[in-house]
Amino acid sequence: MSSTTCLEGVRVVELARVLALPLAGQALGDFGAEVIKIERTGEGDQSRASGAYLPGEPGPDRDSNRAGYMAANRNKKSVTVDFSMKEGQEIVRSLVAKSDIFLENFIPGTLAQYGLDYESLKADNPRLIYCSLTGFGQTGPQSRQPGYDAVFQAQSGIMGITGIPDGEPGAGPMKVGYQVADFMSGLYAAMAVVVALQERTRSGLGQHIDLALLDVAMASMALKAQDYLVTRKVEPRQGNMHLTNAWLSTLLDCADRAIIVTCNTDEHFRRFCGALGAPQLAEDARYRIASERRKNIRELQPALQALVASRDSGEVLSLCKGASVPASPVNDFEQAFAEPHAVQRGVTVELPHPLAADLRVLANPIRFSRTPVTYQLPPPLLGQHTEEVLAGILGMDAERIASLKTRGVV
């Protein structure tokens, strides 16, 4: 493998909080970019105060380095700057002038008050790629409204297609169990800036990227949303059953735990029924072909459940594997991270951290053959790299830095 990384030599200034855009900054850092995270002096990113505490004695460092921050801030340098102060604005502008990418997630118009909007920063750095990721985008009647992941899941329709069908116990819309709009938006943001970097090699110019969490949430439902756009019919919620092509996926309760089984074709269905000792189900006229299974799913589901109810999940999953039928146990996190396949694939990595010598974080899922993802820096302490960046990049001497600290600028 090469010792270089894909984005070696690229510098990113991140003025972003919480989750979505910090995830993009983390991805760029994983790919080798130098990511400088600007955090408010004395406070830091709001995510520092969210999620589980690291083990250890209570204290300022432990209180400001919780799991919410760990999730999206490795491979970054933390610099504290109060950009509401004129000198703080000058520091940010000076860093951006020497950088390739600027990431921000403030309500539109906010950063213009501080001279940190795209037009202002572009004047000093025409090659700058400026990525804005906001709730509703830079335009439109809701552009200045705040919002968080649950709002976008609700407004986009994600919650509308997720949950137990009407008429069944527990019926109603349901939020996805993690911040799906935030996560997808972070991926889109990372992709957008890398594409803009590639385009800059031809034009020599940067550009402004306008991303909205609501737009991404709607785009992420490609198949379901396209069904609606074609038919103009709103499909009912399907719970743990996926009926796009008849019986695709369904939840079945084995004697010890639940499993999910997917039969994407008639052949899958025949093999599944045969493996469980019920080939007659696949020959039943009501279930033989997909269109008939779809019409008769309410009768089919109890019949399938009866086949597994008294069996352990390991037995059923083994039968599915032998018949090449896709299936999986429904894992909690403890079970998911202990799966031999996940362990061998390295879905987590260990990073040394001042507060936890054996801190484990989620690995980047991308595997390059020549330019590997790197894990050089653990999620930083608040302001950990302030002096290093001000001296190393902006050339400030110790006296100037000390003066800025005394006055609360950094």
What does this structure look like?
This protein is an alpha/beta fold and 410 residues long. The protein has two domains: 11-219 and 345-406, Crotonobetainyl-coa:carnitine coa-transferase, domain 1 (Rossmann fold); 249-253 and 258-329, formyl-coa transferase, domain 3, CATH 3.30.1540. It is built from 18 helices and 13 strands. The protein has helices spanning 20-30, 60-63, 67-70, 86-97, 118-124, 149-156, 180-203, 213-219, 222-231, 266-275, 279-283, 290-295, 297-308, 313-322, 333-338, 340-345, 386-392, 398-406; strands at 11-15, 34-39, 77-80, 101-104, 129-134, 163-164, 172-173, 207-212, 249-253, 258-262, 327-329, 348-353, 356-362. The strands form four sheets. The protein has a six-stranded parallel β-sheet with strand order 3-2-1-4-5-8, sandwiched between helices. A three-stranded antiparallel β-sheet has the order 9-10-11, with helices on one face. α6 (149-156) packs across α8. The chain is elongated, with a radius of gyration of 25 Å. The relative contact order is 0.14.
Name some characteristics of this structure.
410 residues; alpha/beta; formyl-coa transferase, domain 3; 6-stranded parallel sheet; 3-stranded antiparallel sheet; 18 helices
Summed up, what is this model?
The chain is of the alpha/beta class and 410 residues long. It has helices spanning 20-30, 60-63, 67-70, 86-97, 118-124, 149-156, 180-203, 213-219, 222-231, 266-275, 279-283, 290-295, 297-308, 313-322, 333-338, 340-345, 386-392, 398-406; strands at 11-15, 34-39, 77-80, 101-104, 129-134, 163-164, 172-173, 207-212, 249-253, 258-262, 327-329, 348-353, 356-362. Helix content is 39%, strand content 15%.
